[in-house]
C-alpha cells in the first residue's frame, strides 16, 4: 500500500480520477441503492480497497459511514475512508435534505413500507388545505419522538430489539428543526410527495406519521431518498457499482506497480488463495416451517417464529463454530458425519412482518455448508426450515459481477 497519506481529506465525487493514495484519507459520496444497508455499502467498498502488503498480509483501511440510511431508502451516503473517519461526526451533525412519498389513511408499526399496514383510517375527506394546515405545524423547532423500530438506545439497548420483543414504552421526545417542508399530490390522491430539509437526528418516518395524525388520519412513508448532506448533493455521488469498479481498478493498478500480483493463471484454471462466500443482501431465502426436496410437502408445518428468537439463534452461529457434515462415499452417497470448524463472519436476517420467508446475507469461511447453517438457525429458533434460494456472490477475489451468464458463454 502507498505510504504517502494526503494531509487533508480528498473529496471523491462521481467520475473523479484517483490512485490508491487518495483512499488513505478520503471522503466519498455514494448513491446508496435500495435494499442495501449502510453497513453493506461500507463492507463492499472496504473489500474493493483491500490490497496486499509486500509480505502478503492484507492492508485494510478503516471505512465508516456518516449517517445511516434504512435499507428501503436510497440516496446520498457519505463514506469516510482512512484518516477521514475522524471527521464522521462532523458530517453526521450536518443538515440533511430528503424527498419521498407518504401514503395517507394507513399506518405501519415501523412508520414505513418495511411491514404491512396495521391500521386503516378514512382519508378521503382531507383537502389540500387540511394538509397545508398540518404542514405548517411542523416548521421550525419541534419535539419529535423517535419510532420504536429505530437504533436509538434506551437503557443501553437499541429500541428495535425492544420493539421486536413486543415491549411497549414511552420514548422521550427530542428537539429537531424542520427548515423546510413541501407537500404535493395529484388531485384526490392518497399518495403525497414531499421534500424536507431538517437537522441532525430527525426521523423522517416519525415526521410522516405525526403529519398524518395531525391532519386527522394515519400516514406511513412509502419511499425516501436523501438528496443532500450539508453542502454535498447526491447529484455528485457515485453509483455503487461504478465506485466499486473504480476502487478495484486503483487497487489492482497499485498492486501491479509494486509487483505484488502473481502471474495470471492459465486459461480455464481458477486459482484461489482463500474462498469465502459473500451473498448479496436479500438474495438468499430461508423458508421456515418445511423441509427441503421431495419431502418438503410432508414436512411442512405451521411455524410462527418471533424475531427475537431468530436473533438469539443468529447470535449463536456467529464466529467460529463446529459444523457436522456428511462424508461422501463412492457414488455420491452420504457416509458417517464428521465435524469441521468453520467461521461465520457475518449473518444478516430480514423479513416482512411475520413472514415465513427470511432473507439472509451470509459471509463464511471455505467449506461451510450454508444449507446446514440455515437449517441449524431454524432449529435453534424452534422451527424447521430449508434454504429456498441462495446465490453465491464472491469466491476470494472473484465477483459474480464479472461472471459470464451461461446463455452468453
What is the annotated CATH architecture of the largest domain? Answer: 2-Layer Sandwich
The global form is globular
Strand content: 25-35%
How many domain modules? 3
Mean pLDDT: 79
List descriptors.
409 residues, alpha+beta, Pseudouridine synthase, 3 domains, eleven-stranded mixed β-sheet, six-stranded antiparallel β-sheet, 22% helix, globular
Describe the 3D structure.
With 409 residues, the chain is α+β, with helices and mostly antiparallel strands. The protein has 9 helices and 25 strands. Helix content is 22%, strand content 33%. The strands form 6 sheets. Strands 1, 2, 5, 6, 7, 10, 13, 14, 15, 16 and 17 form an 11-stranded mixed beta sheet that branches. A hairpin with an 8-residue loop joins strand 5 and strand 6. Helix 1 packs parallel to helix 6. The longest helix has 18 residues. It is globular. About 10% of the residues have low confidence. Keywords: Isomerase, tRNA processing. This is tRNA pseudouridine(55) synthase. Its EC number is 5.4.99.25.
Amino acid at each position: 500500500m502507498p505510504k504517502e497519506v494526503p494531509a487533508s481529506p480528498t473529496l471523491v465525487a462521481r467520475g473523479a480520477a484517483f490512485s490508491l493514495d487518495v483512499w488513505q484519507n478520503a471522503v466519498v459520496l455514494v448513491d446508496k441503492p435500495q435494499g442495501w444497508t449502510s453497513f453493506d455499502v461500507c463492507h463492499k467498498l472496504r473489500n474493493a480497497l483491500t490490497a496486499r502488503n509486500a509480505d502478503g498480509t492484507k492492508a485494510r483501511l478503516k471505512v465508516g459511514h456518516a449517517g445511516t440510511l434504512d435499507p428501503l431508502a436510497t440516496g446520498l451516503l457519505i463514506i469516510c475512508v482512512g484518516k477521514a473517519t475522524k471527521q464522521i461526526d462532523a458530517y453526521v451533525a450536518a443538515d440533511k435534505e430528503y424527498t419521498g412519498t407518504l401514503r395517507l389513511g394507513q399506518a405501519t408499526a415501523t412508520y414505513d413500507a418495511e411491514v404491512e399496514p396495521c391500521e386503516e383510517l378514512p382519508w378521503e375527506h382531507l383537502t389540500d388545505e387540511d394538509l397545508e394546515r398540518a404542514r405548517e405545524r411542523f416548521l421550525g423547532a419541534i419535539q419529535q419522538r423517535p419510532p420504536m423500530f429505530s437504533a436509538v438506545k434506551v437503557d443501553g439497548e437499541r429500541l428495535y430489539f425492544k420493539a421486536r420483543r413486543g415491549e411497549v414504552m414511552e420514548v422521550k421526545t427530542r428537539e429537531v428543526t424542520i427548515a423546510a417542508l413541501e407537500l404535493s399530490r395529484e388531485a384526490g390522491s392518497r399518495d403525497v410527495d414531499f421534500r424536507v430539509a431538517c437537522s441532525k437526528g430527525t426521523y423522517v418516518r416519525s415526521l410522516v406519521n405525526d403529519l398524518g395524525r395531525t391532519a386527522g388520519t394515519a400516514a406511513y412513508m412509502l419511499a425516501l431518498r436523501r438528496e443532500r448532506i450539508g453542502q454535498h448533493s447526491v447529484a455528485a455521488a457515485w453509483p455503487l457499482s461504478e465506485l466499486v469498479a473504480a476502487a478495484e481498478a486503483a487497487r489492482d493498478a497499485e498492486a501491479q506497480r509494486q509487483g505484488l500480483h502473481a502471474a495470471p493463471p492459465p486459461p480455464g484454471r481458477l486459482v484461489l488463495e482463500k474462498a469465502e462466500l459473500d451473498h448479496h443482501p436479500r438474495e438468499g431465502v430461508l423458508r421456515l416451517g418445511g423441509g427441503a426436496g421431495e419431502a418438503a410437502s410432508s414436512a411442512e408445518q405451521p411455524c410462527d417464529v418471533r424475531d427475537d428468537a431468530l436473533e438469539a439463534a443468529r447470535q449463536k452461529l456467529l464466529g467460529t463454530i463446529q459444523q457436522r457434515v456428511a462424508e461422501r462415499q463412492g457414488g455420491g452417497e452420504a457416509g458417517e458425519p464428521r465435524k469441521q470448524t468453520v467461521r461465520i463472519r457475518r449473518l444478516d436476517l430480514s423479513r416482512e412482518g411475520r413472514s415465513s420467508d427470511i432473507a439472509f446475507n451470509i459471509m463464511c469461511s471455505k467449506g461451510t455448508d450454508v444449507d446446514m447453517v440455515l437449517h441449524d438457525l431454524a432449529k435453534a429458533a424452534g422451527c424447521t426450515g430449508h434454504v429456498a434460494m441462495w446465490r453465491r456472490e464472491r469466491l476470494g477475489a472473484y465477483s459474480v459481477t464479472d461472471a459470464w451468464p451461461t446463455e452468453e458463454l
